[in-house]
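step=encode ok
step=design start
structure_in=
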């Protein structure tokens, strides 16, 4: 074949590849990430929630308060059907704590809802460190799910068989409760009586008398099929806490974690869950590494959650863990035909 023939063949192959790429993009019906701030009511309280989703227009660079991200505010939802992922921040955090992860999930074809947990956030810690907080957080996640599924634009476009959740720290506990893990505050009280000096930061978090109460009711939500728990609180779980739990969980242990010490948290959860737990170990990551980076002018006021040890690259860590999270959800919540799942708003168990 002459050089001109080879060039024609190469051009034809390139055009075919481009056409296939364009066809895939067109079928997906989404070109960027959309963002909306909404308000959800639960237990008589209103709380702000952030939504990220596949959009039908390209992403822009927007600022929401002090945070910037690649998304287009109020963009139209892209054509197609999508999975849904809830994100639960840790104590004292906010709905933008994991905005980088949310954007990556939306780019990959998931609608993402992140509540700002009422009574346990950066502006309002009225329930932080109390027994009531362990019950409130999972209910707030279920309320967020009710809201999105009940939304006339988003609800009909969500695949009810592809719903997952991600949580960090206290948020890790919260998403595990959604798949049926039963907390027991008396277990937590015993832990902090016996091991306070070995797990000091966690045990200092509770208020005096704040962990009196015993085993919590079933807070599970049958709509959630898989969860990811990063540096999760585990000392609230005792023997039998995961009895009957069938949904898989990806558990991330951060070896540099000085807030939740081994072996009472991630290790305990993995032991209690057994075969349904998939442990991922990050040798150098610290407790706050999973939080999206803060703007430089906030680092001083935020303190430890915004700072990294010398030599630790938070952006590189986040890129790696996000790939692992996405691979897990894509495996457990695959796109494709499945039997119909009659799960509608308000169908969660234990409520």
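sequence_out=
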């Amino acid at each position: 074949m002459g050089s001109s023939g080879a060039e024609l063949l190469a051009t034809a192959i390139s055009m075919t590849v481009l056409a296939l790429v364009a066809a895939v993009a067109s079928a997906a019906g989404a070109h960027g990430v959309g963002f909306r701030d909404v308000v959800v009511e639960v237990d008589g309280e209103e709380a702000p929630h952030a939504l990220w989703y596949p959009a039908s227009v390209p992403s822009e660079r927007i600022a929401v308060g002090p945070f910037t991200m690649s998304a287009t505010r109020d963009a139209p939802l892209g054509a197609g059907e999508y999975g849904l992922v809830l994100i639960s921040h840790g104590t004292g955090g906010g709905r933008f704590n994991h905005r980088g992860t949310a954007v990556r999930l939306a780019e990959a074809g998931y609608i993402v809802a992140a509540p700002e947990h009422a009574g346990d956030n950066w502006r309002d810690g009225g329930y932080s460190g109390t027994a009531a907080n362990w019950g409130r957080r999972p209910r707030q996640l279920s309320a967020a799910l009710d809201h999105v599924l009940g939304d006339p634009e988003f609800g009909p476009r969500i695949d009810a068989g592809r719903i997952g959740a991600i949580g960090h720290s206290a948020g890790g506990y919260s998403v595990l409760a959604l798949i049926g893990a039963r907390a027991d505050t008396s277990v937590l009280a015993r832990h902090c009586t016996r091991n306070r000096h070995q797990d000091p930061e966690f045990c200092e978090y509770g208020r005096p008398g704040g962990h009196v109460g015993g085993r919590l009711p079933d807070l599970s939500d049958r709509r959630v099929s898989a969860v990811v728990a990063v540096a999760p609180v585990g000392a609230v779980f005792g023997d039998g806490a995961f009895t009957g739990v069938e949904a898989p969980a990806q558990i991330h242990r951060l070896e540099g974690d000085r807030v939740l010490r081994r072996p009472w948290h991630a290790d305990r959860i993995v032991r209690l869950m057994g075969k349904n737990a998939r442990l991922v170990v990050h040798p150098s990551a610290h407790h706050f590494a999973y939080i999206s980076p803060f703007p430089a002018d906030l680092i001083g006021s935020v303190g430890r959650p915004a700072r990294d040890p010398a030599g630790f690259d938070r952006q590189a860590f986040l890129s790696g863990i996000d790939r692992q999270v996405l691979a897990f959800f894509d495996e457990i919540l695959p796109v494709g035909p499945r039997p119909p799942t009659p799960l509608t708003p308000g169908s969660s168990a234990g409520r």
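step=design ok
step=annotate ok -> The first strand starts at residue 32 and ends at 42.
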